[in-house]
Design brief:
Blueprint lengths: L9 H17 L5 E3 H8 L3 H13 L3 E5 L10 E5 L5 E7 L3 E8 L4 E8 L6 H18 L9 E6 L2 E3 L4 E4 L11 H9 L3 E5 H12 L6 E6 L3 E7 L2 E3 L31 H6 L1 H11 L2 H10 L3 H8 L3 H25 L3 E5 L7 H14 L5 E4 L6 H21 L1
Length: 401
Amino acid sequence: MTIAPTATGPHVLRRINATAVLDALRSTDGMTARVAALVAATGLSRPAVSRALAALADVGAVEFLVTEDNGVGRPAQRARFRAECGHVAGIDLGPHKLLVTLADLAGTVCAERRVATPYGVAGPEAAGLLRTALAEVAADAGLEPTALWAVTVGTPGVVDVERGEVVLAPSIPGWAGLPLLAELRDWLGCPVLVENDVNLAVAAERWRGPAEDNLLYVHWGERIGSGIVIDGKPHRGASSAAGELGFVDLATPLDEEPAPVVEGLGPFERLVGARAILALATERCTGPLRETLRSSGDVAVLFEAAAIGDEEAVSVVRTVARRFARGLATHLLALDPECVVVGGGVSGAGDVLFDAVRTELARMLLTPVELRISALREKGVVLGAIRMSLDTAEQRLAGML
């Protein structure tokens, strides 16, 4: 076996120092700091920090600000990270909506567009909508699409991250195997990545919230899926299909043949997904509440009614909580995570639903588990996509030094 030589020399040391200084600068409030503060934060000598800042300024990543002269000696100089020197995109594509977001290199969102995808949208049509929305949101930010440093697409289904391919996407016909990434790379001239949407939501939770080493994230909308973190590492499974909670079957009697996938939805999604909750509520509720549910088509109406004590709504919510807890318990008993985080559209129901879920779970588990509602709600996937794009942009920035 031949071992490749390790890169050594002054240029490597300069790059390491510049990276350390940049990390320290970006971790400060306002991403600005004096040289003395960066010396203390990095442990490097003042000349080494000054050289690193000069190198970062040469590539446009840093600028120098002169503070007010206090009349004693030379005016103090501060360095600022120029987050606006590059931009990335995060995309959340689903069977019902497309969310495209642009952010600078600090992760600050600059522009965003949300598009409702047509019912039953197929892969080629979804790809066209994505491209159009990306061009429009770039224009909103005053950028050409080709100025982006990295783009990440979050998608439902099974994703082979190594090959960068969607292997299986039951909810979007014709999406799997589509040469979308190659076409986007040719157009944009930057890295374009693809990842399972729920895995991206997990990355967002660990970026913007507590970073538990053993975590189960559950996306609860019309579709239901989970992302798993074990000992601080994402768990994908042998076929990158771990966490497909929506395909757990609780409804089919044990001795009967399981029903096939319908409209891309698994058995658990057909039992407690957003569409199923709306159908159950419309069936069991009466009077004005039923009419409002029918006319609005919004499951939030159910949870609002339950929150003010409507007995029929409360009964439906308890049924939903019991069903959801039973499916969730299959994961919890196997994985024993520190925490369960629930995001997605149904997470907007709040404690009127999740207090009932907690009560039901307590009856099904051997040990208690913390269950919290994601503060990111429906933005989790797109924020995770931005985080993944930023990680890729880091490599470009390092290569410039």
